[in-house]
Design goal:
The structure is a homotetramer of 427-residue chains.
Chain A lengths: L4 H28 L4 H10 L3 E3 L7 E2 L2 E2 L9 H15 L4 E3 L10 H10 L3 E2 L2 E2 L23 H21 L3 E4 L4 E2 L7 H16 L7 E5 L9 E2 L4 H11 L3 E6 L9 H10 L3 E6 L16 H16 L9 E4 L8 H21 L2 H9 L3 H13 L3 H11 L5 H7 L2 H9 L9
Helix pairs in contact in A: 1-13, 2-13, 3-4, 5-6, 8-9, 9-10, 10-12, 11-12
């Protein structure tokens, strides 16, 4: 399904006057505060968030899945869905594939299809948390960390194949979320699990092209409930240190113990030049994979506050970051959920851009805690929606992507094309 | 598959001498401490734990399931498996069914089959956390709490049917774990959800036979990740208060927020005469559904300490309790996991029986905190395994059920009968 | 120290033009959305938050306290400080006293002093978490729950005295935060602790004037680290049910286990007509007592969303609520901290007033989760600061209380009067 | 106060027969299992736990402190108290001092006094979490991380002085628990705080004698409630990596977020050769500083399981570890609490020694999760009390130290000597 851009123009035309009133009022306030509105608009427009192929269908839990309709049935349809999002918001210009579900049969065709939607291929993702049919060895007791060399070799080979598929499509990074872990005390020797995993990683790392990165994700629990091999940022950093320059940590917002100060972890990774990227989502309890910004929007802002500070600091030399969403849409239309998520990410980014860094630095230097809070919250309380809308307007996207999506009945159209019982493949 | 009891006799014969040495040493120590060993053995023997029908197969997570072999393919085979456990430990004399997966086609036959293994039917469980094929309305947005009366009616009808099946089999209780909840702020009005649920509960309660109980389980999150309708013991108690005498709270050990003092909740329910029963399991992070006693055995003991105190207190008039396991065996043989779980439960029970209640009461009265800890830990540190083994010996069970299970290659036999790809139905 | 109101007028004059631009822009947007701006301003102006007498000095931890200067040395000076706050923001029109530290020697004088600042006396607070010199019995092992009747009687008598002091001053409520609890398993019998506490409560309740309320606060841990007698909202509700109509639950935002859904607890209390009031603060880990809105501002908004809904619902008959701050200012000037806290509370309140309740109800009825989130976040994202400023302007308060406080060097003045080493009494 | 050893002999005489029956029974069982009982006894006897000087008095919270009587009033009396413990259990042969409270005026005398009790001086501890009178600069906003160089220099100088005192007494390690952190987002720049701290550490490290170690403790929160500079093991390890070989991580059991897998952290530190030592205590919620083993005894066992495995592994070259208690005795007699804590530590150690490592390794290699659990829990369930008692008997300590302490009325004697209102100095 390809959106008729004239419909977007019409939508923008209809909303234009109301938008302009709000944008002008905000622009005036920001100018008063010595913000460069055009520079802000450029930065906001340039910020692109990759959509993972597995997030285009309805998600579920171990207790079941309540599917919606019109879900993409193939890699081509997944690319179409991301293209649709990108057309709506001009902020989702990349797709992140999951192998084995998204193996491109004809990479050339797939690249052309993506290009027709102005999409790039972000990091490719391997999978060893599930067994596939016809697989020789089971990952029940681990993959890259398994005690049996045959299982490790199978998982290493799979990762190398994922790199190959990524090369075909123009990806520049491999993300490994290693679900390996244990459910009971004593099940494995922690140290030996680490060492076997390191050995496996090294073999994969050796196959990585020079301009690629390896993202080492961490997670404290689930699907295993006693320990995981890469349980926290400290372990991720240890692996990255031992692997080399191309290995970088990946932060998934839901992969932390209760009350973790995630923004400090972001700062630590940046300090060490070892931050690779993000999996955005939100959560209240564990890895809930909820819509970004739906539960703790202030935490998201504080994370972006670190990112903006770190990326603009001349002292740091962290490589450019990858931004991805990793959410599970159990009770929302996946495309609506993703529109909300991208908006939340860009909201936090825009707010973080507004922080008066010089004033903040001075307040920090003088231990003026009250003022430091005022400075941060001044940026956070600013209603940046007109700024984001203006950025979209200038990029040819819809002023109100979600409203447009509903008005033009996109989901209904997808259901018509793909059926009410079309379920996305993947996870 | 029916175990040859002569094999158990042989096993017990082989282990007898070694067991007797240990048991006699322990019995001597306990007698020194004025414990009545025979009375202890009787209580331990009488303690029976129900096995839920869904725990006989391999469990999984949203990321996948790594099945084992020889799993029961039918209600009859589930009963056989529980019968097998009961033969091994003489402590698992009941099965708890899950509708719609375990609907008895011919209740008379099913009852006779169960009786042949000396099994009773414990609480029956309804299910509205998943949609079934041919169902008119979806539970995606709730069941007993749904905004649409048609959906609520369907769920009410289902629960009433579950009662009917239970009546056919001789059950005396209905357990409702209501997964209804929300994933996002604003999704539902908390109060109206409660009120609709109460109305649905009342209709189900009205159908409950006089000698039945309704167990109202609570859980803070999962499968929904912002709120659940019956989120905590306070909410469960409110429902029970409003429903009437037959409604009682059910405590699942994994259904609590981090650091919750569960033993105090047990005490509160008992104080109000509103404790119905338990779903035993263990966990480190959330509702991990691990083997009972594998992570926090001391907490389990403290819970039994409350139960023994409460059940023996003349001040209290709580009805008799139901004991059930509710675990998910993702990386263990389900039957081995259940043998370990039952053993852990009875261990905690036996240790709690050893607590010197008079001395404890005196220490509490005098605020002698050090002594109170000594008294509890004295009981906890006692190695009660010979006591449990002796109780099994006297009941005709195996001295070492797990060792026997492995020696006689029960799983291999089940695989041979049922196949390596026989997957349990249910959940 | 009494603020010269002409300085406030001058401040407002200086900021007037800039404020008006922002307010007019916001008012235009709100009017577009069918909000009644004048009605909003009235509600915001009427919302008053009580300041506890113990929050006027620097707080500390068990590891020490780093005092600031110019802290109030007496009840009179505490009242002056609250008067100062109220002059600045016209939103802090009440003080909540802590006995024994704030015993009024001459209640008539104290009432006149408070009236001169337009202050009322909110709930009075008893203290049995510390021993005072000359006290007969120690609270080391509890007070209202103590095993020894003499200790309980002493604590009961103290609470009755607090009521008497409150009557003298025109208070209408007693807040009991009962720190009683245990540090070790077995230290106390949970049920008997509850029963002794209930008996003590009943004796205090009997002395409560007809138009008074008793607020029953709950807290899961600290200063005791295994259990507390009133550990959660369920226990608080049980006490309130058993005591009678005047007993109501009090929610302190920091008194919950990790990840608790506090807004649902608020809804439950309201549903039962049993919500008494709030102790506002913020926290990341435990009872951190940080500035309101400094860590989880969205949670605060969601709580106010419940409160606005509940207070406006014709189905509910909960009594009017008490709003108090309970924070500890360890690294901020206490008065600045309180100004930030009051502003955060009123921000959340104003945002909650903006929620389109009809639209939300419709979205809920239709399970339109995406839209429900949009509706809530639309209100939350609105920058309501101009609305609050306008409300202050109309009430004669400062447009920017914190800026004014710093410009006029209030703290320096207080230090000059009271000394650099004047430490607040209390806690 | 010096214990009359003949009283201990008498006590042991009285308990001897009963002890021997239990010990012989256990020894027989252990021998059956191919354990070398004498080797076990030697290892248990050699295991010594250092007592911190601040743990000899009653602890408290920010809400108050309920002191006991007879607390040590001087460094000399603190040494006497540890001597007393060591006489009772022959397992507390070291004291860990806290400067500035324990500055030895005459180190020679102090060393002689300690030697008379057979005590060594374990790690010395610096303090910058509190201001002392006559101090030039305040640590309110940090010490080694402070933005102001003068404050950092003062803190560095203090640490160097602590090293000097340690050298005088024969200590071989400096423990730095750096309380520096922030209470609010934005208060400090995370990276710069780290860099300033590193610079300060390097200056201290440069003053460390060659045979000394620097222990870098971590803690996620308290006394600051938003962030701490050394928040987790990953940060501790980063500092140690950057400082050099003598810098090692220190694990305090209470310094973790909810649900942290501490035993895995222990394994990680050991793998990197960077584990320095332990601060033992127990907790349910945060840094509760409760008696070791009173809340999670199985977790303690699992930690010792890692330690025993790591210390005996030929693959690892971690330096010898320091064992210290760090607890706060709010409702128990401090000496009784310490006796219970040392007993709990040695219990976990003894149980960990019993683990059949070869069998465990085989089960791990074969992913036999059920068996791995059986092996660990077999060791854990063994009642090792007779083993510990025998070890004490052979070392000349009391069979039942706590019982002996009470029988001989040690506390009463201390109160008689030191007064009912003698409060320990320190923290």
């Amino acid at each position: 399904m390809i959106l008729d851009k004239s419909l977007i123009d019409q939508h923008n035309e209809d909303k234009h006057a109301s938008h302009q009133r709000r944008f002008q009022a905000l622009a005036a306030v920001l100018s008063d505060e010595n913000q460069h509105v055009d520079a802000l608009l450029d930065k906001i427009a340039a910020f692109q968030v990759a959509i993972p192929s597995w997030a285009l269908g309805t998600g579920g839990t171990r207790f079941g899945r309540f599917a919606g309709g019109g879900e993409p049935r193939s890699l081509e349809e997944k690319i179409e869905d991301v293209g649709l999002l990108h057309t709506l918001n001009q902020s989702s210009g990349a797709i992140s594939l999951h192998i084995p579900w998204d193996i491109p049969q004809n990479p050339g065709d797939i690249k052309r299809l993506a290009a027709s939607f102005d999409l790039k291929f972000d990091a490719v993702n391997s999978n060893t948390f599930q067994d596939q049919e016809l697989q020789n060895f089971s990952y029940k007791y681990g993959s890259l960390s398994h005690t049996d060399r045959h299982v490790r070799d199978q998982a290493i080979t799979h990762n190398i194949e994922v790199i190959r598929h990524g090369i075909d499509l123009g990806s520049k990074a491999l993300t490994i979320w290693l679900s390996d872990g244990t459910d009971f005390p004593g099940q494995q020797n922690f140290r030996r699990s680490f060492e076997r995993t390191l050995d496996s990683f090294q073999q994969i790392y050796a196959e990585l092209p020079d301009d690629w990165k390896l993202f080492v994700e961490y997670k404290p629990y689930e699907p295993h409930f006693y320990s995981t091999v890469i349980s926290d940022w400290g372990t991720s950093l240890l692996f990255c240190q031992k692997l080399g320059q191309k290995a970088l940590g990946l932060v998934d917002l839901g992969h932390h113990l209760p009350n973790t100060n995630i923004e400090q972890i972001v700062s630590r990774f940046l300090m060490e030049g070892k931050l690779g990227g993000f999996h955005f989502n939100d959560s209240k309890y564990g890895d809930d994979d909820l819509t970004v910004g739906s539960i703790r929007p202030y935490q998201l802002f504080l994370i972006f506050n670190e990112l903006v500070e770190g990326m603009s600091s001349p002292e740091l030399s962290n490589p450019a970051l990858s931004w991805m969403i990793d959410a599970s849409h159990n009770v929302k239309d996946p495309l609506e959920d993703l529109l909300q998520s991208v908006e939340a990410i860009k909201t936090a980014y825009a707010q973080a851009l507004l922080v008066d860094r010089k004033a903040l630095e001075k307040a920090q230097e003088e231990n003026d805690t009250v003022l430091a809070q005022e400075i941060l919250q001044h940026a956070y309380k600013t209603d940046v929606r007109p700024l984001l809308a203006q950025s979209r307007l200038q990029s040819g996207a819809a002023l109100h992507p979600l409203a447009f999506y509903r008005e033009t009945k996109v989901r209904e159209e997808l259901v018509r094309h793909r059926g009410a019982k079309a379920f996305a493949t993947g996870l």
